[in-house]
Amino acid sequence: MNKSASLWQSDAMATRIKKRYKAERRFKAFGIAAIVISMAFLVFLLVTMVSKGLGGIDWNFLTNSDATDPDLAGIWGALKGSFFVMGVTLVLSFPMGMLAAIYLEEFAPSNRWIGIIEVSINNLAAVPSIIFGLLGLAIFIQVMHLPRSSALVGGMTLALMTLPVIVIAGRNAIQAVPPSIRDAALAVGASPVQTVFHHVLPLALPGILTGTIIGMSRALGETAPLLLIGMRAFIGTPPDSFTSDATVLPMQIFLWSDEIDRGFVQNTSAAIIVLLVFLIAMNGLAIYLRNRFETRW
Amino acid sequence: MTPVFVLLSALGLGLIGWFAARAKAQKLFTGRGSLHSLPGYHGWHQATWVILPALAIWTLWQIFSPGLVEAAVLGDPATGILTETGIQRTAILSEARQLAFNPDAPAFNPKARELAGAFAAAITKFNWIGTALTLVVAFAGGAWGYTRVKAAYPARTKVERSVMFALLLASLIAILTTVGIIGSLIFETANFFSFVSPIDFLFGTHWAPDPFAPVTDDIGRKYGAIPLFWGTIFIGAIIAMIVAIPLGLMSAIYLTQYANPRLRKWVKPILEILAGIPTVVYGYFAALTAAPLVRDFASSIGMANPSTESALAAGAVMGIMIIPFVSSMADDSIAAVPSAMRDGSLAMGATRSETIKRVLIPAALPGIVAGVMLAISRAIGETMIVYMAAGAAANLSANPLDSMTTVTFQIAKLLNSEGEFDHPATLAAFALGLVLFIVTLILNIIALRVVNRFREAYE
């Protein structure tokens, strides 16, 4: 009889293979467990918030501002503050980010200065958000004397934080436009600036917008930098200008979570639901834009 | 009100200029090649000449007019009542200025109320002068630009040059931000070190800053940051990673190696949601649900008086938040391993899990380690979860059930204590911020280097 065949069919080998298959199944089970645990946590978190907060969402909650009585307190003031802050952030960071991305991708010579700019953009994207709060406090409030805890300062601080996100997304989108488009435009006599603004930019715009929305949704949920520039005061009336005292939705959640009155637990969870709805809507829009306008060249 | 008016009128004039110059250029058009630039470019050239000088003048005026207003008020004979000098004089003047903007503002000094009228009058007057000056400059710029509209004038070249300038300016914002961060952190930290020696700060083990305590010579003994560094490392780099690395790594392995593409397409975005949830929500969840669980557990194993705030609750929730981050980094680095290595191992009769454990993970290890470093740098910079769940007590302890504090927590707390900005307790926040900035920067730079070298190795 063949020697190797008997080796393969021996009892020792059968146990060994059984053991290896068992290890294989165990490993696979670990993988499934990891995914199930992560998803279970997500579901648990969402269910907790919905079950605690859904009862608190009514018309009064959406139209009132913060109050000391949990039954009267609402989120309109914080929501309006968030709109103001996001407005400032968008107006500053979108044009700046788009222009910087165009410059770095299309016109920048490759020298040491440009290298420094690229490195600093990539590093800024990884700087902890609270550092931007320190920057806002030191520069915007202590040096420039802009009004503390206003939507203007909050928006400027978040704009600096969002800028690198938009630049990086914008560069990727511009890079994805094939060179043949540029060559065609240049060949019929367009100037380099015309080539970029008339041909490359329209094709890259969906990608830039997607990146902008993702950056904005991160800014909308951000709390830490705003804490440092003083946006944590009790705001009983909605802000009526960019320089008046304001608070934002995540900050309202934070302030309510500190309240001792049990009634605020419902308010906090309800405000979290509203915040998550906004974030889901923004991310949904980003996904839609990406699917609708993404071109595979 | 005035700034909005000035901005709108400058833009309006610019728009008018755009149409006027374009119309003039269109009239000059006599046939192919008769104009150097298209009429639209003449319009943009004109609009630039109207808007930019006007806004520049307005900005300059905003910088200088407060000084002029004060000079005008002080030149007024009514200010004879102002006999105080020094700090008090400055205080009264700034109160009067506040009153001029908002008559309901609180005023502690009656003299401020008397001066408010003079201030209001001077401010209105100088605002009018500034507005008029801006409009004059807008018209002057417009007139100069309008005379340039000629057939041979290279409007396009000029406009494109200013476009390039704007592009360059936008890219410089990133450098300015970096310089601003480093500059302000170093400046305030230097201030802080004039009160507290760097050695006390970096190696001291007692942390008890009081923003209202008088500054004494031995103040350095209260600013030992070792407990904060330990708390940060323990929560962000140890507890959070014990949760995030196995879960993140295993889910990435399952999704890339076992799951069919359809499942992957659905599960991956759902896991990514974990990274998109605002940190304040995690913080609230940690404080509301996780912390009481940990406390009950602590008392069930016989700890006396367990605190509601624990390193474990904050660290575990933070770890969950980091899962998608670890998972996507691991995903990328496993995908970068050439499939020939995997196929070779499978062809030799290794099971899939053996291939993963013995071939894929060792080959992808540099990328995974880099991903973990990036995850740590994100975890130690996280503020809201620790602010809401980890506690304020600066304990130097290895017990995860104890309350612990972190660098980010203390930054937020020190700057929210309403103390004086020049007090060492406030400045300490900037010193902590500088340490945090340097550590995260180093982690990121090393991680990116490793990732790049690792990519090159397999290409």
Short description:
The complex is a heterodimer of chains A (297) and B (459). Chain A is an all-alpha fold and 297 residues long.
Report on this structure.
The complex is a heterodimer of chains A (297) and B (459). Chain A is mainly α. Helix content of chain A is 75%, strand content 0%. The longest helix of chain A is centred in the first third of the chain and has 43 residues, at 11-53. Chain B has 15 helices and no strands. Chain B has helices at 2-28, 39-75, 86-101, 110-147, 155-193, 198-203, 226-258, 261-276, 279-300, 311-336, 339-347, 352-380, 384-389, 407-415, 424-457. In chain B, helix 2 (39-75) packs antiparallel against helix 4 (110-147), helix 2 (39-75) crosses helix 5 and helix 9 packs across helix 10 (311-336). The two termini of chain B are 60 Å apart. Chains A and B meet through helix 2, helix 4, helix 5, helix 6 and helix 7 of A and helix 5, helix 7, helix 8, helix 9 and helix 12 of B.
Give the arrangement of secondary structure elements.
The complex is a heterodimer of chains A (297) and B (459).
Chain A: H1 3-9, H2 11-53, H3 59-63, H4 76-107, H5 112-124, H6 129-143, H7 151-176, H8 179-187, H9 192-220, H10 224-228, H11 249-257, H12 263-293
Helix pairs in contact in A: 2-12, 4-7, 4-9, 4-11, 6-7, 7-9, 8-9, 9-12, 11-12
Chain B: H1 2-28, H2 39-75, H3 86-101, H4 110-147, H5 155-193, H6 198-203, H7 226-258, H8 261-276, H9 279-300, H10 311-336, H11 339-347, H12 352-380, H13 384-389, H14 407-415, H15 424-457
Helix content of chain B: over 70%
Low-pLDDT segments, ≥5 res of chain B: none
Strand share of the residues of chain B?
under 5%
Radius of gyration of chain B: 32 Å
Helix/sheet category of chain A: mainly alpha
> What is the terminal separation of chain B in angstroms?
60 Å
Structural class of chain B: mainly alpha
Order of helices and strands of chain B: HHHHHHHHHHHHHHH
- Determine the strand fraction of chain A and express it as a percent band: under 5%
Oligomer: heterodimer
| Beta strand count of chain B | 0
Uncertain runs of chain A are none
Nearest-angstrom radius of gyration of chain A?
26 Å
